[in-house]
Design goal:
Order of helices and strands: HHHHEHEHEHEEHEHEHEHEEHEE
Number of domains: 3
Oligomer: single chain
Structural class: alpha/beta
CATH topology of the largest domain: Rossmann fold
CATH architecture of the largest domain: 3-Layer(aba) Sandwich
Number of helices: 12
CATH superfamily of the largest domain: Response regulator
CATH class of the largest domain: Alpha Beta
């Protein structure tokens, strides 16, 4: 080897279709069609061009391909936080559902664009669906923007929401029968002898409101006093301090607590322990969700299970049908009481 020469370890890397076309001795259009596996190019030529591409480490520009087909293959996954502006996507429920949604989308060749949105005007959702960047939108939660979702869904088909289904509702929602779930939670406390119940959570979102309504129905049927609402933010830092204040003022009367979520329930159990209040002997606690971490609390958490994995699958399936132009009905899943140690 002469001075200045460099050794090569293999064929040089091809940067664009033009370079590949020159090596293959065909037009750039033929290369493009061959790489897309189009039958317009005969099988022998197709295989030869694809082999050259592999040999030289060439991968077609995905963005250019999407521009040509006018398909982005991107789904917007949006978390609207109108009622709780400081809540984070790192919330365990969000992360669990996001994981299942991401699996369902990527396994079908779609990418996702994640957005945490604090609605600042009436057209926040219009801006998302009209961006031209998305094939469809999955909303995680209805927050306090139910009416906005209804309005946009009337003209935009590929939209599916995790949340509550109401009679006559326009938008396609996937979620649990929250009223039944709330009733199950309260009934578990009543059956173990609790007579004065409290509900911890923010009842603005439709899902949480329905859980409270179901719990109230169970209490009323049992002849108990109205369940006290202890309003609780869902942002982690504010939640801890607020629940600590609630527990400090709890008094001797409350003997059963229904939490709007497992995260709220776990925070309640910690606050009760800090005040030397025994769970479940002095105060029994029931959560909602049945996240994986529900088995890690001490005591282990009794909770109402909603099938998040199935819900994510139903959301993705409904969205793909809607992208294809087919309307779908809402899906309401049956909740299940999971009895452990806290109640």
């Amino acid at each position: 080897m002469r001075p200045g020469d460099t050794a090569t370890t293999g064929p040089r890397k091809i940067r664009n279709i033009g370079e590949l076309a020159k090596i293959a001795g065909v037009s750039a259009g033929t290369v493009s069609r061959a790489l897309a596996n189009k039958s317009l190019v005969n099988a022998e030529t197709r295989e030869r061009i694809q082999a050259i591409a592999r040999e030289h480490g060439f991968r077609p520009n995905q963005m250019a391909s999407k521009l040509r087909t006018q398909r982005s293959n991107v789904i917007g996954v949006v978390v609207p936080l109108g009622h709780e502006r400081s809540q984070h996507i790192s919330d365990p429920f969000f992360m669990t559902l996001l994981g299942y949604l991401a699996d369902g989308l990527t396994e079908n060749g779609f990418d996702l664009m994640l957005s945490r949105v604090v609605p600042d005007s009436d057209d926040w959702l219009d801006r998302i669906v009209d961006s031209g960047m998305l094939e469809g939108v999955l909303l995680i939660g209805q927050s306090n923007v139910f009416d906005t979702i209804e309005r946009v869904a009337a003209d935009y088909l590929p939209l599916v929401v995790w949340g509550e289904h109401r009679p006559g509702q326009v938008h396609c929602a996937v979620g649990s029968d929250n009223r039944t779930g709330g009733r199950l939670a309260a009934q578990q406390l009543i059956d173990r002898g609790c007579r004065r119940l409290a509900y911890l959570g923010d009842v603005q979102p439709p899902e949480i409101s329905e859980r409270y309504a179901g719990a109230q129905e169970a209490a009323r049927t049992a002849g108990l006093d109205e369940i006290e609402i202890l309003s609780t933010p869902l942002a982690a830092d504010a939640m801890q301090s607020t629940i600590a204040e609630h527990i400090a003022r709890l008094g001797d009367g409350i003997d059963g607590i229904i939490a709007a979520s497992d995260v709220v329930a776990m925070t309640v159990i910690r606050a009760l322990a800090d005040h030397d209040i025994s769970v479940p002997d002095a105060v029994a606690v029931v959560g909602f969700d049945d996240l994986a971490i529900a088995t890690q609390t001490v005591p282990r958490l009794t909770t109402v299970r909603q099938d998040i994995e199935r819900g994510a699958r139903e959301m993705v399936d409904a969205l793909f049908k809607r992208i294809a132009g087919n309307a779908t009905q809402s899906v309401v899943m049956k909740p299940e009481l999971i009895v452990r140690d806290s109640a």
